[in-house]
Amino acid sequence: MDFQRQTNKRLYEEHAATLQLLARVERVVSGRAGAYPPAAGDPEWPAFARTLLSAIEVEVARHFEFEERDLFPRLEEAGDGDLAALFSEEHVTIRAVAQPLADLLRQASAGNLTQQQWQTLKTLALEFSERLGSHAQKEDGALLPVLEQLLDEDTDRALFGAYAAG
Ligand SMILES: [Fe+2]
Ligand SMILES: [Fe+2]
Predict the structure, then answer these.
(1) In this predicted structure, what is the pLDDT of residue 7?
(2) Residue 75 lies in a domain
(3) Hey, which residues does 34 pair with through a beta bridge?
(4) pLDDT of 35
(5) What is the enclosing helix (H) or strand (E) of 50?
(6) Cα gap 103→75, rounded to integer Å
(7) Would 146 be classed as within a structural domain?
């Protein structure tokens, strides 16, 4: 998608990266990328678990906080409060599954989960993927086009600068 505003370009890229990661998550936990649960000493698993954990705790957390702090209030002011409320609620339901998933991933990076816990991890991972994937696509379709109209050049530069600076 072609956006003029830096902020929208960045969010769109982050959504695309997220969707790619989620596709990998689905391949891994459904056993299409090697055995699941992974064999003891599987060299791929710790790297995958670290990547997913960091996505949950760093990238997604930061992205959500930015949207909640700097974008949803602007949407609300512009009269799109329903949309802002919907996206905020989705963040809540995504975090609700991300947190137990992150807990299990931390335990699983050592590779020592019970059979039951591996199943739970799989269920949580698929649910996380479902919720976050549909959310990101919905924002691409409904949030970014609205923001494209809403953000003037100076606001965009200030927002993007602050976000990119971390
Ligand atoms: Fe969001
Ligand atoms: Fe987003």
Answers:
(1) 97
(2) yes
(3) 32
(4) 93
(5) helix 44-54
(6) 33
(7) yes
Tell me what pLDDT residue 40 has: 84
- SS3 of the chain: helix, strand, coil, percent, to 5: 80, 0, 15
CATH of the domain at 34: 1.20.120.520
Q: Is 1 among the domain residues?
A: no
113: CA distance to ligand 1 center in Å?
Answer: 31
- Find the 75 Cα to ligand 2 centroid distance in Å: 14
Q: Which two tokens stand for residue 67?
A: 């949207």
Q: List, for the chain, all residue ranges whose pLDDT scores fall below the cut of 50.
A: none
What's the domain range around 54?
6-165
Centroid of ligand 1 to alpha carbon of 88 (angstroms): 7
> Which ligand lies nearest the alpha carbon of 8?
2
CA of 43 to the centre of ligand 2 (A): 32
Residue 11 within a domain: yes
* pTM across the whole model: 0.95
State how many domains the chain has.
1
CA of 96 relative to ligand 1 center, distance in Å: 14
